[in-house]
Recover the amino acids of this structure.
């Protein structure tokens, strides 16, 4: 009872008042619009807007209610449509319902058009949420669960369709196609619903949670291929070998091209649009164009447009420069408009009054039972055969028994091509609602019974570290170089991150214009562009060498994952860097010479670059002779206990991991601290905490680091002394800007810049920089 009271208090108390006021006011307005439309003999735009507003508001309110009781929000949107349709509002106030949602074809087609577009956006979003990497990692177990979970309910649903009396079929001559649609509707899980519930329960990274989602991904992918082929058959009305072969071959060819050449094309479209357009939301327009183009292609080869939209979503979701902001924008558009309209229209087309007919009610019960037992039984059996425990198999069976949006879309397609009538459509929607609403509580119950394995605990700790790590914030690198030794070292760093973290890199030649001019401006510009491409080729070669040397990280990039582009310096350096920041670049590696000015501090170009770039800059200065290979780097990481130095240590450890280089941690202790605790084993809590934190990071990267504690009143002298005695050739220092007339990172960094006889990296790791990245 207390929980229920808390729920009632938390739900907006005036939601019902808002809803009633909205419907009444819009109902009055729609009467005028409807009368206007009848006089003009054409659909009323005002009535269309009334319908959209009612569906969005009502769907949002009931969706909120569903979320608060532990159900997916789309259930509220479907129920909103059912309430507004003939099932409830039509029974209580038939004239009002008919006036709000007239069955006139031309008026109805306006809202239906938004709903059909909503199908494409929903499939685009479903594709973007599809984690192919997860499906690949668990392909054996997930494929077994998915296939058995599809085959058993599909066969049962198909058989049910074959035995349904002719009186319940819209067209007995199309029984075969109707049976195919029934089998498909009963066999496919909704990856969106499954992933949402698993994520809400914090089981997404658990073994069984990953298997459930991976199985649903394969389920969904196979399902949309089946739907596309079935649609091709349905349009012909009969099954003939030519139609079937065309649909299957066309689908396979489309999938093959999409996941090979198409993957690269989609990435280049998004990258080019992101980097070259200055207007608002250009990437969103590019994504919609990609979705539309692929949907048109599938339509031309004789399968449904949903397959094109779904595959487009997968490719878009895999784009390495799809920023969080773009992702949020697309989800916002779909969630706020298309989802409540589409699912609301689905509910409007659902007439639950048909369940008053005993034969329809019996059919609905049979469909729910077959769908539930078939899906649960197939998944449970496959899990047991795969060696999972009974508790895990139980959770898997419960998790796969959710239809939701997928079945609704299948039913809508079937209704649109005439192989389902309103009775069968209502039966399928009822089944989808019942199985989806039963899934969350049963899955929560089953997952709560699962113990945490030791292997899972270790993996979860590693993933928790990655989610909170400093480097986990970055998405895209800008490499600003001039062909110097410092530029070469910066190129190595960019290659490290391109391989180990699959980060796209943009190369920028930052040399001043007069350095490349010989009197012929056009020739000089061409030469500079050619030089920038040469820098990009050096980067690609370095990344390829790293890949061929076999990095230990199994998640490291392959040659196809290396994305390198060239940005021309087509304006003032400050403007170019600002533009690249706006295009999603959030980590700057700059290597230029000279790195110091006449006053011994960072030169003016570096000051301009670090000020103009809105992400995190890392200044690379090469001193002495660079080693021939990255593996010959010896990296020294000074730490002082501050978060800034620990973040820099993580940065350096990531470099050591990628280069397979030796690495040492140097903890500098002030003299008074050293006298109080003369031995390393007797260090105080602060020192132990620092080394423990950095040691945990080193363990995560699998690096055996040397740990050194050194006393010294001057940190910069201690760093240089240990670097020389240990023959370290690269120092990584975490810094933050200081208020001064020029670029300054404090006395330690300034002294190292002026006096160090070995290479240094100065990376800004202060809190303000990290916060800017997240925003």
């Amino acid at each position: 009872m207390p929980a229920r009271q808390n729920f009632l208090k938390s739900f907006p108390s005036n939601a019902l008042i808002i809803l009633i006021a909205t419907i009444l006011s819009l109902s009055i307005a729609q009467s005028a619009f409807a009368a206007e439309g009848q006089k003009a003999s054409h659909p009323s735009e005002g009535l269309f807007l009334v319908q959209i507003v009612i569906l969005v508001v009502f769907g949002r309110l009931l969706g909120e209610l569903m979320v608060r009781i532990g159900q997916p929000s789309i259930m509220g949107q479907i129920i909103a449509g059912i309430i507004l349709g003939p099932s409830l509002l039509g029974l209580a106030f038939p004239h009002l319902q008919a006036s709000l949602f007239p069955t006139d074809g031309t008026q109805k087609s306006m809202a239906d058009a938004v709903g059909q577009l909503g199908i494409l956006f929903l499939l685009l979003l479903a594709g973007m949420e599809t984690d192919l990497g997860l499906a690949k990692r668990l392909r054996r177990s997930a494929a077994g669960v998915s296939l058995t979970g599809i085959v058993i309910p599909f066969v049962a649903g198909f058989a049910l369709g074959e035995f349904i009396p002719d009186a319940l079929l819209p067209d007995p001559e199309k029984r075969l196609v109707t049976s195919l649609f029934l089998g498909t509707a009963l066999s496919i899980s909704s990856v969106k619903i499954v992933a949402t519930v698993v994520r809400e329960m914090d089981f997404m990274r658990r073994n069984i949670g990953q298997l459930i989602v991976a199985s649903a991904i394969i389920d969904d992918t196979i399902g949309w291929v089946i739907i596309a082929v079935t649609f091709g058959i349905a349009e012909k009305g009969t099954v003939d070998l030519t139609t079937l072969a065309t649909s299957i071959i066309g689908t396979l060819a489309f999938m093959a091209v999409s996941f090979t050449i198409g993957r690269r094309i989609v990435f280049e479209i998004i990258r080019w649009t992101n980097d070259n357009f200055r207007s608002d939301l250009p990437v969103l327009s590019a994504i919609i164009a990609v979705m539309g183009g692929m949907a048109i292609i599938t339509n031309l080869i004789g399968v449904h447009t949903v397959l094109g939209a779904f595959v487009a979503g997968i490719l878009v979701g895999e784009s390495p420069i799809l920023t969080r902001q773009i992702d949020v924008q697309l989800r916002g558009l779909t969630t706020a408009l298309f989802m409540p309209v589409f699912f609301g229209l689905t509910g409007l087309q659902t007439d639950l009054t048909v369940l008053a007919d005993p034969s329809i009610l019996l059919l609905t019960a049979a469909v729910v039972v077959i769908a539930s037992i078939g899906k649960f039984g197939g998944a449970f059996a496959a899990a047991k055969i795969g060696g999972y425990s009974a508790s895990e198999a139980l959770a898997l069976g419960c998790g796969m028994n959710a239809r939701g949006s997928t079945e609704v879309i299948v039913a809508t397609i079937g209704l649109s091509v005439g192989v389902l009538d309103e009775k069968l459509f209502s039966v399928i929607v009822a089944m989808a609602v019942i199985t989806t609403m039963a899934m969350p509580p049963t899955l929560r119950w089953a997952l709560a019974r699962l113990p945490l394995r030791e292997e899972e605990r270790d993996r979860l700790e590693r993933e928790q570290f990655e989610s909170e790590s400093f480097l986990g914030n970055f998405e895209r690198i800008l490499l600003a170089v001039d062909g110097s030794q410092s530029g070469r070292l910066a190129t190595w760093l960019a290659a490290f991150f391109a391989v180990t973290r699959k980060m796209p890199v943009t190369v920028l030649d930052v040399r001043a214009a007069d350095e490349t001019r010989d009197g012929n401006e056009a020739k000089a510009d061409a030469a500079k562009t050619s030089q920038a491409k040469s820098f990009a080729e050096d980067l690609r070669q370095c990344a390829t060498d790293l890949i061929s040397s076999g990095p230990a990280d199994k998640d490291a990039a392959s040659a196809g994952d290396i994305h390198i582009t060239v940005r021309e310096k087509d304006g003032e350096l400050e403007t170019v860097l600002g533009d690249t920041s706006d295009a999603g670049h959030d980590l700057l590696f700059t290597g230029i010479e000279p790195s110091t000015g006449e006053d011994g501090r960072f030169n003016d170009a570096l000051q301009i670059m670090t000020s103009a770039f809105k992400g995190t800059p890392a200044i690379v200065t090469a001193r002495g002779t660079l080693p021939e290979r990255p593996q010959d780097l010896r990296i020294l990481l000074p730490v002082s206990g501050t978060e800034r130095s620990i973040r820099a240590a993580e940065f350096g450890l990531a470099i050591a991991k990628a280069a397979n280089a030796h690495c040492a941690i140097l903890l500098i202790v002030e003299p008074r601290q050293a006298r109080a605790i003369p031995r390393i084993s007797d260090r105080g809590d602060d020192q132990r905490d620092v080394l423990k934190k950095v040691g945990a990071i080193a363990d995560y990267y699998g690096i055996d680091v040397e740990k050194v504690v050194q006393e010294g009143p001057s940190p910069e002298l201690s760093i240089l002394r240990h670097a020389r005695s240990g023959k370290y050739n690269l120092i990584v220092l975490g810094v933050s800007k200081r208020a001064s007339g020029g670029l300054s990172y404090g006395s330690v960094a300034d002294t190292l810049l002026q006096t160090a006889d070995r290479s240094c990296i100065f990376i800004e790791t202060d809190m303000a920089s990290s916060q800017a990245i997240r925003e």
Notes: The chain has three domains: 104-454, 473-595, 623-775. The radius of gyration is 31 Å. The longest strand covers residues 662-669. The beta strands are 477-481, 505-509, 564-567, 587-591, 616-621, 634-639, 662-669, 706-711, 730-735, 759-764.
